UniProtKB/TrEMBL annotation:
Organism (species): Shewanella hanedai
Swiss-Prot/TrEMBL cofactor(s): Mg(2+)
Protein name: diguanylate cyclase
Keywords for the protein's UniProt record, in alphabetical order: Cell membrane, Membrane, Transmembrane, Transmembrane helix
Entry GO CC: plasma membrane
Length: 485
């Protein structure tokens, strides 16, 4: 009869398992088909790469103009002749810079002479750039650029107006013989660039922003709520390397439980990546609806199996509880569970006026064992010591693996004298034991500190007292027991 019942149980579990697998395969198949069709429709209809191309074309008109202007200034014979001729009559250059600024509607135009280090601005000579001034670091960075990189784009406060942040285009200037003579350029207000980004977002219904080659978000609209780097952006952190090592990429990620389609493209003139994002289309709501149907069916089947498998799960749960409360190597109580019992024992001692003692035990010269025989033998020594300690304890006593080779023993209803006797008995037992390894015998000794709980004493103070006693035992030559009074 018993065999028949067991056979019936097995048959029933098998049927339910087949039902579960069949249900999930069926529902997953439906989900996959709907998701595949919807995603294909999304990609084909939204044409994110084409949108990115359109935005890039507008950037060439709106944002690349300052690079063109700076290039013209760097090649202007007036600027080069004036600089070569010892920068006579600065008013001529200042007027030139002012005309550039007015003609092209930039927020600033400038020229720094490498010879005089004067910072010429459309409003006059602002200062002399100095290598020791952190504010002028940009100039010396641009100055050291290789010839293959004639300009740099950076974002800094306006030298003439500290309250305004500017996107600068800094262009190297050479004389007619190819010698470096300075840096010129123009700047756009960040607010103006942000308005352009806002315009792109509104026109194309996409999220638009820029990142540099390190993944730092350099420019974005005023409604941008993402992280300041790709590496810190949820969902994008795993894709950052792929984006930053490719001239262009089309991919997707999950943000706030929504699929986001992303197209990245390197704007080589700025050395920034143009990032255009589009959240999942409304059509993908079908995927979500199907998903919830699958969840409902799955939960129904899972509940049936869980009811039948309750006893088995209970057994595994008890096993997991043991694993969660014990040290994997030694089987001793781990620190988390020990601290719970420790706190309760001290509370009982305060309420019932019963003694509680602890022993802190450390294996002597354990590092030599590891160094001489390897960590596997070291683990064997720790396990052996743990077993010998456990055999000397009562049922209500608790041994915890406190550290690598340290053990902390909790002894409820034991005063200092009896705890000392127990520590001495454990010490003698361990000292008499030899472990044979590859024709070698390893002798083990331990040092111990013993302390009794004083009513109302903070647990940290009790641990500290027993720790001091342990170190006194080590200082006195090891293989001994020291009491903390």
């Amino acid at each position: 009869m018993g065999n028949r019942v067991w056979s019936d149980k097995k048959r029933f579990i098998w049927i339910l398992s087949v039902l579960l697998i069949t249900a999930f395969i069926f529902t997953s198949g439906i989900s996959y088909k709907v998701a595949h069709d919807s995603l294909s429709e999304q990609i084909s209809e939204n044409t994110l790469p084409l949108t990115s191309d359109n935005i890039y074309s507008e950037i060439q008109q709106d944002l690349l103009q300052p690079i063109f202007i700076s290039s013209l200034m760097a090649q202007d014979t007036f600027v080069r002749d004036w600089t070569i001729n010892d920068e006579q009559d600065p008013k001529l250059l200042i007027r030139y810079l002012k005309e550039i600024q007015n003609k092209y509607d930039t927020v600033t135009s400038f020229f720094i002479s490498d010879k005089s280090r004067n910072y010429y601005h459309s409003t006059g000579v602002l200062k002399k750039v100095e290598e020791t001034d952190p504010i002028d670091a940009w100039y010396f960075r641009v100055r050291s650029l290789p010839d293959s990189e004639p300009y740099e784009v950076n974002i800094d406060p306006d030298t003439a107006n500290k309250n305004q942040t500017v996107v600068y285009v800094n262009y190297k200037v050479y004389d007619f013989d190819g010698n470096f003579i300075g840096v010129t350029g123009v700047g756009l207000a960040v607010e103006r660039v942000q308005k352009l980004i806002k315009l792109y977002q509104k026109r194309y219904n996409r999220r638009v922003y820029f990142v540099d080659t390190e993944g730092v978000v350099t420019l974005h609209g005023d409604q941008y709520t993402g992280s300041q780097t790709l590496q810190d952006s949820p969902g994008l952190e795993k894709l950052a390397t792929r984006i930053l090592t490719s001239p262009s990429a089309s991919l997707s990620y999950v943000r706030d439980n929504k699929t986001v389609y992303l197209n990245s493209r390197m704007v080589s003139e700025f050395k920034w990546y143009l990032m255009v994002e589009q959240e999942e289309a409304e059509g993908e709501q079908k995927i979500l609806n199907t998903f919830w149907v699958n969840i409902g069916l799955g939960l129904l089947v899972i509940i049936i199996i869980l009811v039948i498998a309750n006893l088995t799960l209970g057994r595994y749960q008890r096993k997991l509880e043991v694993m969660a409360s014990t040290d994997k190597l030694t089987g001793a109580t781990n620190r988390q569970m020990f601290e719970i019992n420790f706190t309760q024992s001290l509370l009982n001692a305060d309420n019932s006026a019963v003694p509680v003692s602890i022993i802190l035990l450390d294996i002597d010269y354990f590092k030599k064992v590891n160094d001489s025989f390897g960590h596997s033998i070291g683990d064997l020594v720790i396990k052996t010591v743990a077993n010998m300690i456990q055999h000397q304890l009562r049922d209500q006593d608790i041994v915890c693996r406190w550290g690598g080779e340290e053990f902390l023993l909790l002894l409820p209803n034991v005063d200092l004298s009896h705890a000392a006797d127990m520590a001495e008995r454990i010490r003698e037992t361990i000292a008499q034991r030899k472990i044979s390894v590859n024709e070698h015998e390893i002798g083990i000794t331990v040092s111990s500190g013993v302390a009794q709980y004083n009513p109302g004493e903070p647990s940290a103070d009790l641990i500290n007292r027993v720790d001091v006693a342990l170190y006194q035992a080590k200082d006195r030559g090891r293989d001994q027991v020291v009491l903390s009074h």
